Amino acid sequence: MTIVLGEAPARIRAELVVLDERFAGVAGDEYVERLYDGGRWLEGPAYVPAWRSLIFSDIPNDRLLRWDEVSGQTSVFRQPSGFVNGNTIDGLGRLVSCSQGERQVIRTEYDGSRVVLASHLDGLRLNSPNDVVVRRDGSVWFTDPPYGITSSYEGNGGEQELDGCYVYRIDPDGGLTVVADDFRRPNGLAFSLDETELYVADTHGSHIRRFEVDGAKLTGGEVFAPCTAGRFDGIRVDEAGRVWAATHEGVHCFAPDGTLIGKLILPDVVSNLTFGGPRGNRLFVTATTSVWSWHLTARGARPPYAANA
Ligand code: MG
Q1: Domain that holds residue 77
Q2: What is the pLDDT of residue 24?
Q3: Is residue 5 a part of any domain in this protein?
Q4: How far is the CA of 45 from the centre of ligand 1 (A)?
Q5: Which phi-psi region, left, alpha or beta, contains residue 271 (left: φ > 0; alpha: ψ -120 to 50)?
Q6: I need a surface site. Which of 56, 89, 114, 253 has the fewest CB within 10 A?
Q7: For residue 308, is pLDDT > 80?
Q8: Residues with Cβ < 8 Å from 297, sequence gap 6 or more?
């Protein structure tokens, strides 16, 4: 039985702020559509081409939801979810998720079983993995702020065992290493088109930093862009190398040189975003209780499964 949740998509005229001509051509539709409303704090959108679906997290309600692109309906994919936050799809099409409640990064296998990719560093539990990306070489990169343990709202609460909030890399053979240890609240992350750079949002500093990827290590880490509307959360890169970021007033778009070139204003605080749809030109945005979509002329950076095809 399909449980239909939050049917009745609505659309509103896209409220755009064009600050630079590099943003002027990205708009496709004049409207943004509200695909779902009824979550408590939505996060972690990941588009799954094989399922024609968007998976996303409703963290305080401890569930993963699935919006079906064909039917337009949203149903429960997994509940309890372990207070999953960030999700992504790896190079083989598998769902990789950050469980704030279990304090683990997990992968859902083809048979539906789940394997733990990371849970401890040197015998100490992770804080509460927040967001995750997979590189084409199969390595998994994630951030570990404490939002799932500071209270029982977005997790199970608990003690912080590690000294800090780090950015991690999981080697394809399973080894876990710290790749950045100077963040207060690392959050969203995204690779550049050629994966030689990694952008990481620092919610505490309210900026995005840019690192050079040197094999399994990061160097650099300068501030790429400050947030001018609250705090950054999730980020994504499109095929032109533009960086799209979740803010408290909507989605901000930056040129590769760090210039804020445009905004999509939305009525609620935005947590995260992803590109999807059959052509990769549909922007999905999780914003507090709702999921929005906006058709663009631009497409997202090619995901790893396409690159491997
Ligand atoms: Mg986040």
Answers
A1: 10-308
A2: 87
A3: no
A4: 11
A5: alpha
A6: 114
A7: no
A8: 25, 26, 27, 28, 281
Judged against a pLDDT cut of 60, whether residue 107 lies above it is answered with: yes
Say if 3 falls within a structural domain.
no
Rounded distance from Cα 1 to ligand 1 centre (Å): 31
Q: What is the pLDDT of residues 113-128, one digit of tens each?
A: 999 999 999 999 999 9
Q: What is the CATH number of the domain that holds 18?
A: 2.120.10.30
Number of structural domains the chain divides into: 1
Which pLDDT band, with edges at 50, 70 and 90, does 5 fall under? Answer: low
Q: Of all residues in the chain, what percent carry a pLDDT higher than 70?
A: 94
b/e map of 80-103 (b: 16 or more CB within 10 Å)?
A: ebbbbbbbbbbbeebbbbbbbbbb
What does the alpha-carbon distance between residue 78 and residue 13 come to, in Å, rounded to a whole number? 33
Taking the centre of ligand 1 as the mean of its atom positions, its distance from the CA of residue 199, in whole angstroms, is 13
Residue for token pair 């995204």: 190
Name the pTM for this structure. 0.95
Q: What is the mean pLDDT of residues 203-222?
A: 95
Rounded to the nearest angstrom, the distance between the alpha carbon of 131 and the centre of ligand 1 is: 5
The mean predicted confidence, pLDDT, of the chain is 94
Residue 199 in domain: yes
User: Which contacts of 216-225 are long-range, i.e. CB under 8 A and separated by 24 or more positions?
Assistant: 216/139, 216/169, 216/171, 216/177, 216/179, 217/179, 218/167, 218/179, 218/180, 221/180, 221/182, 224/199, 224/254, 224/258, 225/254, 225/258, 225/260
Which residues are within 5 Å of ligand 1 (an ion), measured at CB? 130-131, 187, 233
